[in-house]
Structure formats: structure tokens, C-alpha cells
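Model the whole thing, not chain by chain.
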Amino acid sequence: MKNITLTLLLLVIIFAFKSDRDEEGMFLMSHLSSLDLKKAGLEIDVDEIYNEEKPALVNALVRLGGCTGSFISESGLIITNHHCVFSSVAGASSSENNYLENGFYAAKKEQEIKTTLPVRITQSYVDVSEIVLADISETTDALLKRDIISDNIKAIVEKEQAKYPNLTVEVSEMLVGKSYTLFRYKTLNDVRLVYVPPKNIGKFGGESDNWEWPRHNGDFSIVRAYENNMPYQPEAHLEVNPNGTKEGDFTFILGYPGTTYRNQTAEFLEYQNTFVLPIIADWFDFRIAAIEEFAGANVDLQLRYSGRLASLNNTAKNFKGKMQGLRRTDVLVKTYQDQIKLAQYVASNKEMSSYLPIFKQNNELYMRKFELSRDFIYLNQLYGNGIFGGAAYAALYASKIAEMSKEDKASYLAESKEQIEKDLSGYKGVSSIESMELKLFCELYYQLGQSSLPQINEIFNAENGSIDKESLYAAARHIWYKSKLKNIESAAELMTKDLDKFLKTKDAFITMGNKVNRVFSEMQVEMNVLNAEIDALIPKFNDVEMAANGGDFMPDANGTLRFTYGYIKGYEPEDAIALKPFTTIKGILEKAEGTANPDYFLQNEFIEKLKKIEPADVLRHPTDKEVVVGMLYNMDTTGGNSGSPVMDSKGRLVGVNFDRAYTATINDYAWNESYSRSIGVDIRYVLYVMKYFGEADEVLAEMGVTL
Ligand code: ARG
Ligand code: GLU
């Protein structure tokens, strides 16, 4: 590993430095007034978007589970993505009543189906950095520093929560070790399904099209939020503009982007590129294949695993996109270059000399992290995986239980029991889960058998010391067959009836689990220290960056409310390929007709309907007269922005964001106009599907749309 970094370091010294910073923009509400949005194309006042005094567009925004949504009526209707309610719809479906397959519409409120999705609305926020960072300056111990910060946060939240018992209070880290903001949210725990298109509209193109442009799916759904069993009345809701937009139009997005890593060091990117991305992408592919084989043609099993499969597929493809991006662009090298430039700046400024050691310290911490990472990632997957993982995990906590007070022990056991029951409930009525579980266990055993760490080797090597697949699979099978826990019924009995007894069982899983636990606990401790020390350096890197390049620091996405703006715009992602910014219904037919790919399957009656419908004129693209389906734009979004409203220059709803293009997946590390494009479903297709496929006239009327 050292070699890679050294080569890179040498390489970058030869390169000429570029001084321009990429333009990016997940702006905080407090940044809005510093942007020249009028010049960019906004036709309303900034205080109509965000206003501390009176309701503005942001008050129509919600965080819906891990996604975003926006109110579109005064009675709590919310528009979000189909994939954001996918698991809820699958959960409400069965082979007889398959809403996922056929779609769902509640013309009357009594017919709406309750979900477990929570909705959050940002009420207000305040900077609490000073209190969070009080009394950390004396300590140089990184772990202690981290603990003080988290204790301070806990205390602030407790105090604030007591003041506002009806709100959800959270402190978000805006800049590691530097800037913290307290957010107050209103939480509604009653969200009901109102309109969901059939899966082959909502997820048309499936995994084949996921993270790709051009796109032809209607990835939207409508839900309603309730409070005290009454439709919730939001402070603001969005007006729908059925005319949509045209190429070049100014647009903006408000939403809750989840996580970006733009303020991290080059070593962090290398860690992602060398470990996290390839290992997880491979492992998820393996899991996907095992689950698909297991579920086979059984519709109920397919429904049960549909959400899990969607999320495994989604992450695996995203990670492959990131690997391609890092391979094709100079993001990694450039981040190293920028870092070296900073080091040179520090070296040439006497008053900054105290910062000089951070470059070497950071590199050394990562070098050690790299040594552990491969096995650490696989071990984490082992714990997260199936019966063995559950058994090992429970055993991992055995020692902690022994040290607990009586009350703590009782509540811990109760909690564990609940968790295990929940885990196992997924297996109820499934007799041959073993075929899938055993396969995954063998593969993880094999991967860990490849380890170069002696402590891991000792556990996962076949008896003869061979590390070929055959013998490691055989060793894993041996443990598997010796364990009674492989039988779900007896595992359930052991794990739920008497956890104490379970932890002391002489079972092959528990015995092996205990060995793994010893090694894993040690690694966990070391990783914790490494990560805390790495984190403690980040604010220093930020100081240097600020001193060298000046200006404001844009906090990484962290699930808090953000604004981004840009234009409806195509791009040229690959050699000889130029992509336009709109897709139309014509493209749905091109994909669906005469293909063997099940992702593009459309029933004949759907195809006939698409051909026959004479849509309202307003829904047609003004020049080519087709109904627009998908839209592409150069705004800055990431996971969590799903379901975010795309708004026009007057703040009206013209689309719903749901994805990024393949080349844009690396914008989590670095946004760039040349490869970053995000994808939404055009409002014209939303209305088209609701009107002509869903016949959802009541909801359209509630949204104030007449067609
Ligand atoms: N790629 C989009 C997002 O990141 C859509 C995901 C939908 N899920 C899927 N497996 N196709 O969430
Ligand atoms: N589909 C993503 C989500 O669920 C949004 C797309 C992205 O990651 O940019 O939030």
C-alpha cells in the first residue's frame, strides 16, 4: 500500500498545479442571500424561498425517511419518489393484492394505506458550535476530544428537547470539529399511501437504467401526512406548473442531501478507492445473486426481498460508477496535488509551522488503517449477515452483559430479544433459507481466509493451511453443519427463550464467534482510535485550506436542508456521445417493444394505451409535441435528494429529482460541471401517468391541476 501513495506523491509533484476550485453548491439557507440568484435566472425574491419571518417555499419541504418530499396541497399531500415508498408498498402487498405490481390509488381518504415512514419538517436552527466545542482545547487525546464533543451535544439536545417537548431536536456536525448546528424538527409519524404507479412505470428500466441517462421511468408517488388522525395542514405547499421547463431554463432544488466527502483528505479518497468501493461492490453482487437464486419464481419471497435487493443493487452500481469515475478523472491525483500544495504553503509560512506535522501524521494514520481495512470490512459484513452473524454478534456482547448492573442487564436482554425476533421474523415460513445463508457464510469465510493478518489467518484458515476456495468453503461448511443454530427453529428457540443460556452454548457458531470476537474487538478499538485521530486532524486541514485559499467553507451534505441551482442541460459523458436533457414517451416504446430484458417489460395493454392516449396539449413538449418523461440538469445532488422538488424560476414544481447519471456518482467526492448531471421525472409525465393510467382525478384536483 505504501507504494501506491509514494508513487502518487511523486507523480503529483511533476504535475503542474491547477488553482481553480470546482464550482459546487449544496448551499445552506444562511448562504442564500450571498448568491446572485437574480442574475442566475431566479424570478422571485430570495425571501420567498427562505424567510425567518413568514412561510416560504422551504416550509413545503419534508424529509421523508431517508428521502425528501414536498407538500403539494393544503391537506398534507406530499410528492416524493416511487423508490422512496417502494418498501412500504412491497410490505403492503401480497401475491393476491400486489400493489407493487399493479399500482395503488386511494380516491377517498379512508382507502389510504398507512406506512411506517416518518416525516420531518425543519422548524428552525441555531449555531451551537461554541457550546459543543467548549473545553476541548485542553486535551490532545483524540478519543477524549471526540467523547467530550458527543457529551456536549447530548447535553445540549437534552436541554433543548425539554424546552420543546413536541419537536425533534438534533445537532448536526457541519464541519468536523469546527461547526455544529442545532435543528428543531416537527415529526409526523403518520404517512399514508395515496397514489403509487405500477412498478413497470415507477421502476421502468429497473436496475439496467438505474444511475443512467437517458431515463424513462415515472419515479414518483403521492402520500399524505396526518397529525392526530387529521390531514396535516402545512405552512406552505408548492404550486404545480404543468407546462414544465425547456432546455436551458433556470431551476433549483431544495432537499435533504445525505452525505458527501468533499472536505476530506486525499488519503480518504484512496481508502474509498482501494477498499470500500471494490470490496463492497463485489460482496453486494455476490449477495444479490444468492438472494435472486433463493427467491426464484416465488412471488412472496420476491416481495419480501425486493427492498433489500433494490438497495444492494443501488449501492453496488453506485460504487462501480464511482470506481469508473476515479479511474477516468484526475480527482484522486488532483486531491493529492492540492494537498501537497497546501503543505508547501505551510512550509513557506513561518507562522503556520505548527500545522506542518499534520500531513505526515494523516498519512501515517491512513497507512495503518489501510493494513486493517480489508479484513475489517469483511468482518463487519460477517456480523451483519444471517444466523452466524447474529450469533457472533450476540456473543460479542456476552462479556458486556456480564459486567452490567441488574437493571441494565434486564433491559439489554429485553432489547436483544426484540431485535433477534425482528431479525428472525424475516425467515418465518421459509424452509430452505439455508441454501442462501450457507452460501454467504462460505464466501465470507473464504474472503477472510485470504487475509494477510496473522490473527485473522489463525481463525479462517483451513486446517491444512490452504487458502484455496475449495478448502475454505469446506471448512466453513464443516462449522455450519456442526452448529445447531443453522436450524432456524432451534436458533429462534435458543436466542429468544433464554439469551443468557444461548451465550454459553457450546455450539460451533458460538465457539467460532468467540474467537472472531476477540480479534474483532481488538481491531475495533484500534480503528476507533485511528478514526478519532484522523478526525482530529480535519479541522486543522480546514484551517490551512482557509488560510491558503481564503473564502468560505461549504459544509458537506449531512442530511440537513440544502439549496442547489442550475439549468436544464445535456452533456457529453463519453467519446462521441452527446446526450439531450429531455426524454419522451417515444423512448419508452423504443425500450419496451421487442426486448427480452425484463427491466423494460410492458404489458401489451400498456403499450397500446401509450400509443392511443391523446394527452392534454399542456403536457406536450412545445416543439416536438411529445410528452416529456425524464429531465437532466446540472444541479448538485446526492443520495437523500431523492424526491426533492425541482422548481422553476418562479418556484413552481416542474419535476421530482430521483437520480444521478453514472458519471456523476463521483460528485460525492468532487462536483464538476463536465460530468455531474442529476435526473428527475418531469412534472408532465407525473400528471400524464396520474391522469391517464391512475385516473386519479380527485388527487389532481386537490393539487390544483385541471387537464
Ligand atoms: N439510484 C437512485 C437512488 O440512488 C434510485 C434508486 C432506486 N433503486 C433501485 N435499486 N433502482 O436512490
Ligand atoms: N436515488 C437517490 C436517493 O435515493 C438520489 C440520487 C442520488 O444519489 O443522487 O436519494
